[in-house]
Amino acid sequence: MWLTIKIGVDMRFVLLCCGWLTLALIAGPANSAVELKQLYQSSVAVSSQAATERDQALQTALRQALLKISGDDSLLEHASVQQALRNVRDYVVQYGYRQEDELQLWAQFDQQKVNQLIQQAGSGIWSNLRPELLIWLAIEDESLQRRMIASGDETVFVQQLKNAAASRGLPIKLPLLDLNDTMSVSVLDVWGRFDDQLAFASARYSPDGIVIARVYQADSAVTSDRWMLDWTLQLGEMRWRGEVTGMDLSSLGAKLISDLSNRLAQRYRIGTDVEQVNRWRLEIYDLADLIQVINAEQLLNSLPSVNAVQLVAFGANKAEFELSLQADPARIMQAIDLSKQLRPMTAPDDTLEELRAPRYRWVQPE
């Protein structure tokens, strides 16, 4: 129940043979991203509804929202953000309390003001279309025994991993490790980063990207921390890798999510150039009627740094739109690539002139 206060606006052989084909399919463009809701809302655990604790909780909630929207850890250190945190109530639309396992303060922030703050701090906005990642993770303990992590595990490590993903707005899945998974994947496949085998096993989960992560005791000659986690991420044709360390093994899950979020946000975050407004046109095909045209226009309007969308022409199931942008059109195209409804028709080797008026095919939501 909410109290709300408004304050403003053999099988292994067969699987191995199929693995390369599946890897090729997953390595294609990521076009089934998750559309996140409530990016401008956050919840924070509190011990009471006292005014002093409320103000601190609102500041924490705003920090969470800024990280979720921008994916930029360095943003929180900017002077304008520090000033905004001191005046956090200027950004709150409404807040409330709920009692579940613990008392929580929930806050909704003003989207326009938060976006302006992020842009003022020199960062950008990560679209609410986020790639969903499947994480294959293996841990080697002190006795050098290795095991895989399943979605149903109730360890502190897994709980912190999931909490961090929810807080950062990063959709993730962990494998079930049921009979289907264990028939096709072993801990050796994860430890050896056998991409083809893991790609085949991942197909049932329909992820946009696959993360392979390994946790083991750190080399004392390299770091003073006890534990290390290294990871690789394959998303379409892109591939990233990284590592994090920590004294406490259970803390590495949250650090992994932070690392992944930062890398993805660097690619998909859209900044705003207040000095320049770009005019950019694109064509959308397979629009059956005016309702679908309106839906396409609304989708384009929802993208960060899009000031306005104008329908230029419509006929023969094709619409041409002109967008007013305060960003590089290439960044907008990256955001569109994550949409379920718009599939690119422009080949990678097309000429520059063709890329200036890209073509997309409309896919009606099921």
Give the CATH class of the largest domain. Alpha Beta
Strand content: 25-35%
Number of helices: 12
Most strands sheet: 6 strands, mixed
Can you give the helix content as a percent range?
A: 25-40%
Explain what this protein looks like in three dimensions.
The protein is an alpha+beta fold and 366 residues long. It folds into 3 domains: 155 residues, Rossmann fold (3-Layer(aba) Sandwich); 88 residues; 85 residues, Alpha-Beta Plaits. Helices cover 35% and strands 29% of the residues. Strands 8, 9, 10, 11, 12 and 13 form a 6-stranded mixed β-sheet that branches. A 5-stranded mixed β-sheet has the order 16-17-15-19-18, with helices on one face. A 4-stranded antiparallel β-sheet has the order 1-4-5-3. The longest helix is centred in the first third of the chain and has 20 residues. The radius of gyration is 23 Å and the shape is globular. The two termini are 33 Å apart.
